[in-house]
Structures are given as C-alpha cells and as structure tokens.
Design goal:
Porin; eight-stranded antiparallel β-barrel; 8 strands
C-alpha cells in the first residue's frame, strides 16, 4: 500500500516539484545557501608595530659638495661630488597607531580601502670620509670630502587598497598603497682641496675646509607599500589582526629608505 501512495503523490505533484520531493520522501534534509562571516561596512582599530629598515645614504651629500666646488677645475674634470662617500645603515624601532577603513563584500570576496597610521622614532645615520688625488698638466689635485647624514622618521600614513578572501572566521588579504611620511633629515659635507706642482712639490693653490649643510625638520616624503595580512573575527563586531607591510620611500635627495613593518592589532566592525 505504501508504494501505491508514494506513486500517487508523485503523479499528482507539479512537474517542477517532483525532483525535490523525492529527497523528502527519502528522509533527506534541505540544504540552505552558504553563509559567510560579515566583513562589509566601516571598521576602526588600533595596532602596535615592529619596524626594521635600512637607509642607503649613498650620494646624500652630493648637492652640498657640488655647490662647494661649483665652477672649479676638479669638479668639472674629476666629478668630486659624484664620489660615494656614505654607506648604508640598518636600524630597528617600535611604533604604534591606528587604522580606519571600509569593506565591500561579495560572498567570500572582500575589497576595501583603508587609511593606516604609524607613529615611530626610527632613525639611522652615517658618516665617513674619502680622499683622492688626480694628476693633470704637471699639477696634483688632492681633495678630501668629510660627509655625514641622518634621517629620523617621525610617522607615516599609508592609503591602501585591500583584497581579501573569507575562510570561516578568517580573512587573509593582500594590500597595495601610497605612503606619506614625515622625517627630520640632516646632511653635512666638508671639502678640503690642495694643488701641488708635481716637479717641485710646491703648493700652488688650496681650498681651506669649507662646509655646507642642509637640515630639514618635518620634511614630507612619499612612497609605496605592499604587504599581506590576516583578520580574525572573534565576534560579529570584534576582530584581531596581524600584518606585514613593506614600504619604499622616494624623494630624499640621494637617500633611499625602506621599511619592513610587522603589526598586531584589533578593531571593531560597524
């Protein structure tokens, strides 16, 4: 009798509903749509950072030396200002800051825009001296350059786009951004030069130690950033974050500055 009732139900049911009814008759439970942790909307948070970076001072003092030796024989013929006087220096520091952003979500895909601020006291410096001599027309030209430079990074803000993928309570993401920072930068160069007749050893000319400096406080510097991170949802509105960001700065006048920043923090979603 049971098989007759089942057959009668199938025959009388609308055609579009028969396939699903078979599952019900077999005792199967309907499956709902997939659900994802909500990351869309505004969010704000705070963070702590560890910063490891390097400053390649290279020809940081080149403009200073070029100005001291402007319109001179040794600069025009031997390019003293192009000598690489200063070396690269590495340094570490800590920092703290915050972030604010907005996410748009499509199922398990998340795109967002974020402003991230870091306050720090990262500093590096270099000082060195180089001496060379050149012979020309029976005269020996000898020059010495004493140079020093330092950079103290005050803070920096990155405006970056993020792309994430939802995996349960986790959202790994990648980031690309534009960075603006402030730094105190000092540069100093002292040049000494002598001209000696090679045959007689007589001093025929000289430049007494002449110093040129360039000190800038709170100078704005610019660059780009790239990195990876992970947001972890603890509740509907609370999340934790861990992140790595690489920053490269430009426009420091002969100095190249890069940073590797590791962050941990937490935030609120709205």
């Amino acid at each position: 009798m049971r098989w007759f009732i089942c057959a009668l139900v199938v025959l009388l049911a609308p055609a579009g509903a028969r396939a699903g009814d078979f599952d019900v008759l077999r005792g199967a439970q309907p499956v709902g749509p997939a659900t994802y942790t909500r990351w869309s909307g505004f969010y704000v948070g705070g963070q702590a950072a560890y910063i490891s970076g390097g400053a390649d001072f290279g020809n940081a003092t080149q403009p200073l030396v070029a100005y001291i030796l402007r319109n001179t024989f040794i600069e025009e013929n031997f390019g003293v200002s192009n000598w690489t006087t200063l070396a690269k220096r590495d340094a570490n520091s800590t920092g703290f800051g915050g972030f604010v952003g907005y996410n748009t979500q499509w199922a398990d895909a998340v795109l967002g825009l974020e402003a991230n601020y870091t306050k720090t006291n990262w500093m590096a410096s270099s000082s060195d001296s180089i001496s060379r001599h050149m012979d020309s027309g029976g005269t020996r030209y000898a020059a010495t350059v004493d140079a020093s430079s330092s950079i103290n990074l005050i803070d920096y803000t990155s405006i970056r786009g993020r792309a994430g993928y939802v995996m349960g309570q986790l959202m790994p993401y990648g980031l690309l951004g534009f960075v603006v920072g402030r730094a105190d930068i000092t540069k100093s160069a002292t040049v000494t030069e002598t001209e000696t007749d090679i045959a007689s050893g007589t001093l025929t000319g000289s430049l007494s130690p002449t110093t040129n400096t360039d000190n800038q406080s709170g100078k704005f510097i610019y660059g780009y950033s790239a990195g990876l991170g992970l947001d972890v949802a603890l509740t509907r509105n609370v999340f934790l974050r861990t992140e790595y960001e690489y920053v490269q700065f430009f426009g420091l006048g002969g100095t190249h500055l890069y940073l590797n920043t590791a962050r941990v923090g937490g935030g609120l979603k709205f």
